[in-house]
């Protein structure tokens, strides 16, 4: 199985203590995922992110409905956590989220290891481009993050 790697970084002008809580709220993922994916968290009720937490999603990839399930396999707040696909479109998806204090703010790093059905051809034609577009969108949304407007107030913190 061929494994591919992707990394994305964004520096946010806020301390890690105000950035990490946004990521600790699973439903906030919907607000930083491109609308063309029609991404929704479908796990009922409150989701306490911790090691072993399971989260279910629905989305559309190129119009095809997909169910995705991930598990939090590492939980080390406020510095990092890892989610791994348990069911979904990839043969493997391991996503590490890291948070580092840097230059008076927080460097948010996403590192993804993934494998796709169909191998190199499918990755080159579809998946690598899609992953890049998704994380570009996510980066732009995160740059507008404001902890003063949080989900506690009925807002995801994004302007």
Describe this structure in words.
With 159 residues, the chain is of the alpha+beta class. The protein has one domain: START domain (Alpha-D-Glucose-1,6-Bisphosphate, Chain A, domain 4), CATH 3.30.530.20. The protein is 20% helix and 39% strand. It contains two helices and seven strands. It has helices spanning 16-23, 119-142; strands at 4-12, 40-41, 54-61, 64-76, 80-87, 92-102, 105-115. A seven-stranded antiparallel β-sheet has the order 1-7-6-5-4-3-2, covered by helices on one side. It is globular and about 45 Å long. It starts with a strand and ends in a 17-residue tail after the last helix. Residues 150-155 have low confidence and may be disordered.
List the helices and strands and how they pair.
Blueprint: E1 4-12, H1 16-23, E2 40-41, E3 54-61, E4 64-76, E5 80-87, E6 92-102, E7 105-115, H2 119-142
Antiparallel strand pairs: 1-7, 2-3, 3-4, 4-5, 5-6, 6-7
């Amino acid at each position: 199985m061929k494994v591919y790697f992707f990394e994305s970084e964004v520096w946010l002008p806020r301390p890690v203590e105000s950035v990490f809580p946004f990521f600790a709220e699973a439903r906030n993922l919907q607000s930083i995922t491109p609308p063309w994916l029609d991404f929704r968290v479908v796990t009922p009720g409150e989701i306490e992110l911790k090691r072993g937490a399971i989260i279910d999603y629905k989305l559309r990839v190129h119009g095809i409905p997909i169910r995705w399930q991930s598990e939090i396999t590492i939980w080390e707040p406020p510095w990092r956590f890892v989610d791994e696909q348990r069911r979904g479109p990839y043969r493997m998806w391991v996503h590490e989220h890291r948070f580092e204090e840097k230059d008076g703010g927080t460097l948010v790093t996403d590192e993804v290891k993934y494998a796709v059905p169909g191998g190199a051809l499918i990755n080159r034609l579809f998946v690598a481009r899609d992953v890049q577009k998704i994380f570009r969108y996510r980066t732009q949304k995160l740059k507008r993050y404001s902890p003063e407007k949080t989900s506690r107030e009925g807002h995801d913190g994004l302007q």
